[in-house]
Amino acid sequence: MENLFNIDFKRIPSFNDKEAAEREKNFELFLKRGFPNKKDENWKFSDLNYIIRKNFKNITNNDDYKFDEKIELINDFDHNKIILINGSLESCDLQFEESGKVTIESLKTFEGFYDKIKNNLDYLNKALSTGGFNLEVQKDYKCKKPIIIYNYFTVNLDNKIINNSNKIKLSQNSELTIIDYNIGGKSKFIKNTFEKINIDKGAVLKNIVLQKTKSDGYFYRNISGTQDYNSSYQNFILSSGLKFNKIEIDMNLAKEKSSCYILSGLNLSKEEHQEIKTQINHLAPNCKSYQKIKNVLESDSNGVYQGKIFVKDVAQKTDAYQLSKALILNDKAEFNAKPELEIYADDVKCSHGSTSGSIDADAIHYLMTRGIELRTAKKLLIKGFLNEIFDNIPEEKIRTFLEKSIAIQIDEIR
Amino acid sequence: MKSEELNNQDYKYGFTTEIENFKAPKGLSEKTIRFISEIKKEPKWMLDWRLKAFNRLKVLKEPNWQKPKYPKINYQDFYYYSAPKSMKDKPKSLDEVDPKLIETYNKLGIPLNEQKRLSGVAVDAVFDSVSVATTFKGELDKKGIIFCPISEAIQKHPDLVKKYLGSVIPLSDHYFATLNSAVFTDGSFVYIPPNTRCPMELSTYFRINASETGQFERTLIIADKGSYVSYLEGCTAPMRDENQLHAANVELVALDDAEIKYSTVQNWYPGDKDGVGGIYNFVTKRGACRGKNSKISWTQVETGSAITWKYPSCILQGDNSVGEFYSIAITNNHQKADTGTKMIHLGKNTKSKIISKGISAGQADNTYRGLVDIGAKAKNSRNYTQCDSLLMGNKCGAHTVPYIRNKNSSSTVEHEATTSKINEDQLFYCNQRGLNQEEAVSLIVNGFCKEVLQQLPMEFAVEAQKLVSISLEGSVG
Lengths: 414, 477
Hints:
The complex is a heterodimer. Chain A is an alpha/beta fold. Chain A is 18% helix and 42% strand. Chain A is built from 6 helices and 20 strands. The radius of gyration of chain A is 21 Å and the shape is globular. The model of chain A has no long low-confidence stretch (mean pLDDT 89). The model of chain B is unreliable at 1-12 and 86-119 (pLDDT under 50). Chain B is globular, with a radius of gyration of 21 Å. In chain B, a hairpin with a 2-residue loop joins strand 3 (121-127) and strand 4 (130-134). Chain A binds chain B through residues 41, 45, 313-314, 316, 326, 328-358, and chain B through 65, 376, 389, 391-421.
């Protein structure tokens, strides 16, 4: 493990002596167990230790946040902007919102030292975290436009690791749509992010994760959250294009009538490995959760879905649904699923389904008899397969933009 | 000894048969293994095999990933061999039997008279560590079918045993399987010669009687090319406050065009209402569809045991082979079950089907855990999985943990699962037509299980249907 890392705590911008001991302690705790491997049930299908060792050596922590390229903004719809460079808050522009209603600040020092540790990567994050942002929406304020987080990564990140942590809080009856837009250079780096989400009574948070171009990034993102009465959380995962990506969502539906939606449409190509792992805890009656995970797997890609629905004994009238579907286009591709139910209440409606297979030959035949050539027919079916995910996005402009982004990806399928 | 006679003697299910026992020294050691091997007059290769397993066992650790946790088992606290001193001994009295259990079996209506009806079934009866008798041997011999206790097969058919024993469940597979390999005492051996259809159902009846014993039986079934066999397994144990371990290994081998149908009605003592006592049923069952167009079908009705922990599996090696798994697992009171199957697709055009029905009542926990693995070479393979859970009350749990792996673009895997409670409307409808609450629940549950029950051979289906109703008694209201 020593050879794998070349860490210098002094490179952390906000580093001070007070933190030093804590950071070093956490790092030692991390080194004790290292990156999780397939012996760990949660990492059964994604052996991170193997993947990291195969691709990295001499991992250092990043201290470079200089960025002088032109930032290409999305012109398809009006939006507020937050710009992150290598995971660190660079600037923000909330021009469409009333002042004081939405606040964002940079988290320079890492406050989360004493939080409960979630897994071994959490130790690593706590040891090396360079902070992140803290976003808050005030009571009764419904954001007029979505916020796009431009997540830029510079080109000199080879063998570097970025650790950051963010916090999002939506106060009572507020509403916000966040689009995470990742733009990466050609360097090979690791990103380890921990996020905390707090959704108060009646608030609605929508989060869309999108990757602009293909990237050699190895991403891990851990989202944990709590939802209050009648709140709603919707997450759309469209992060195709990363070499490795694991998104772990741990959501507590703590009060009645809260709902959680996780929808994903991924199109994985050569040497790509993505995992979505969810744990939805139904802790109160009358909550709803809905998960739909769709994967298109090309070449030697690897798609994983591990979903768990937990229903506590008091959580009667729970309505929980899990669906994972995979289209396997190549014999080298692999899809693994573990849709899990753990249920202790009897008056519930819980179901899951999982299918994987190739494109329906009959459908291809049908299209070809109508004069559409094979490649186009395939793409048409894949498009239909993935686009279903967007049905749940009401804003037409955003939907069109997402459909466009996906269409570009599908176009690359041979 | 004919099956009817047997049933009149030792098989009254829930009670203890007071028999003078001949036991191995307590505890697990090389000495015990040598003792077992010696008493069975085994050849040296068999003893060596056992000792190899025992050496392996020393480095293996007991698995702990399962959902139902149990107190640490002290393996030195069991007798690994226990047999009635004389098999002619008759049970001394029925008075010692808990009236509740007698009542249960009277309700079932199976033990005495009705078993006579099963004269078309050949039975191998295993009592603690020895096989007591095997019926219809003569008739089967005529067809060249071998159906005998495995200890006899080791003596008489060493070539077959050597070739196939441990070929599906290797010596070092996992803790309990290896334990079984080291100390197994008896069980059934079946060999069906090529192009033979076994004319009757073969059946083994397992019985744990002595206290402080574990039962470690081993079953090996080989269906040679083009043959067919249907095999039934039944089991009961007396009520005791202690937990007894039952760690069996069952290996099935189906060669080209052969079919094995393996049915289990598991009715070990489940422990009392407060979860005291009962059998730990930690069984390894695995079948290999080795030949082309072969088929293995597992059907299980799991109503007993304090903890049921088993995954009857199919390794689909041969092209066009088929694996099936039909299961009902009922847990009531403090019972726990963690059961399911593994379908490992290796050959081309292999098909598998999994139908699992789990029912939890009382404070029970019921887990379906299964694996469907489609290998890269298993072109055009197909799996369909359906697991439904029924919950009665909010003190019990129903869990589904399917593992689905697909490495092939021409194969299709489908999985669906639901969890629900008994529909109020259905109950109301039944009540309205004069059925009381319990009858209504029993009817609905039987309907819920129908897909699995209809897979059972006729003789078992009746018994199983009644068991389903009885297992859930007292769980309504």
